[in-house]
User: Fold this.
Amino acid sequence: MKIDLADQINEILLDSIKKIIRQDNFQIKDIPKMILLIPKNKSHGDLSTNIAMQLSRELKSKPLDIAHLIVSNLDIQDTIVDKVKIAGPGFINFWLNENWLYKILDEIREQGENYGKVNLGKGKRVQVEFVSVNPTGPLHVGHGKCAAVGDALSGILKAAGYEVEKEYYINDQGKQIDILGQSVQVRYNNFLEEKREFPADGYKGEYIFDIAKEIIDKFQDKYKGRDDKETQEFFKVFTLKKILSGIKKDLKDFGVEFDVWFSEKSLYEQNKLQEVIELLQQRGFLYEEKGALWLKSTVFGDEKDRVVIRENNIPTYFASDIVYHQNKYQRGFDKVIDIWGADHHGYINRMKAAAQALGYSEDFLDVLIVQFVTLIKDGKEVGMSTRGGEFITLRDLMREVGKDVARYFFLMRSYDSHTEFDLDVAKSQSMENPVYYIQYAYARICSIIKKAEQEGIKIDKNKKVNLHLLDKEEEIELIKKLSSLKEVVRKSALTWKPHLLTTYLYDLASSFHKYYTVHRVITEDKELTKARLILIDCTRMVLFNTFKILGISAPESM
RNA sequence: GCGCCUGUGGCUCAAUAGGAUAGAGCAACGGACUUCUAAUCCGUAGGUUGGGGGUUCGAUUCCCUCCAGGCGCGCCA
Assistant:
């Protein structure tokens, strides 16, 4: 494996700094992390570092002086670096030998679908748990955002060398499931002209009626007027199954496949609660007060202690979650990421406190909060309460704008900004949609390659093509974009920001469209044509790889 | 009252772990199809980064404070 060019520059910089420290007897604790960045402005070189400014504080000396010292000790013999210059307040800018650009193309061709992968995770096991919506109704638009973010983040972490497991936690027991069953049961009886009172906090959605109708179709009046244990259980189980299979189908059609569907009920069946209570008791983090059992979550920074077992002996929702996270830990993950909606952010502290009370390190569990989606339809906001029954489902959204548009829209901005999703705009502007813009770049490339094939132009993998012919400004620009994929993957895996990749996609597509407008790929010049075909094929590959990480499809024609 | 998130051109958002002249798209205006897909490209205009302080070589980014919006503060889930 070749040395990364950033690594190479890091190395010679480090050598130089070490030399200075020795020569001039500087005292220094640690050398700050070297940050090499690609300057926005071309006149600042191909790569740049601010290390001199970073060191200035520690060395108590002017950034410019340090920069000069570093540069004069820099050994650029036999490296990719052509020229070094100091600029501004103390930036050290590097100009690279142009060969490096063409080496990028070789690398892409060599690695194919693997280009863009980095080994940040080194095989560490990460669990990403997301969506995990109570199975009391269909998924709505807000859940779609969580699904898109969770799935994309998982893809990013995989590309960054982590071993990722995606999980959906099903709250398939408890009070809300009882109410759900009752809601359907009442509707069922009402359809059969049996008077029943609808539960005060019952689920009012249209889908409840549909399920009731379905039960009539299948079982006629078998359960009419009955209210024994068996009947209640029947409505609960039937409804739960129905809704859950709907959720699974929605997610699958949205392109999200989970590795594990984890049932809350199964934890109780295995009597895991008792185990966890005993463990917490042993560790001294439980106490009784007012007939209830409390967790001392304040010890770990929670605002107040929390009830685990109620006065009436029924465990709280929180208790289940503690048991569930205990289970996650026992499955041996190095890291657990929970993705929650913004309405649950007040829950983070107690959950992290619980994890620590169980004895896990503070950074074992991290919770990522996805801010709400405000959906605009016909110019006004649409409410999204499951219980109230008024919402736009993820299914509706997919029907209206398609899977790719929906996913991209959720991912194109940072998940922690509350985004407005104007349905009318997403539909009516679909021709100017960023998704189409990007996919169009891909389709264009495919179409050129197809045409070249028809004209009998073939790229022989073994035959040398003179890539130095790719010397136009737009070509250099495009290759540089291609080269930065790995950096983007690394960064987004480190910061858990999928939108860095959507931004990158747009950027890359833009570079390609510009190139396309100015230069023709297929020309009379055979050698040039071949070189350009390689360039666009590499672009195609990079687009493809990024699409794959984000779960967006790559159409060969549009 | 306390906590979390947000505030950037008219609108929707970026800004790479604090970096160089704050960038895109939409909307506006003016251009480019005899071409491998015009679902594209080029140009013009548009900014006191909510206000005020601070930290330093440098702040959209970090700290304090105020203002505005969203969301939470249960022996609900």
Chain A has 20 helices and 15 strands. Chain A has a mean pLDDT of 90. The longest helix of chain A spans residues 229-253. The CA atoms of residues 138 and 246 of chain A lie 7 Å apart.
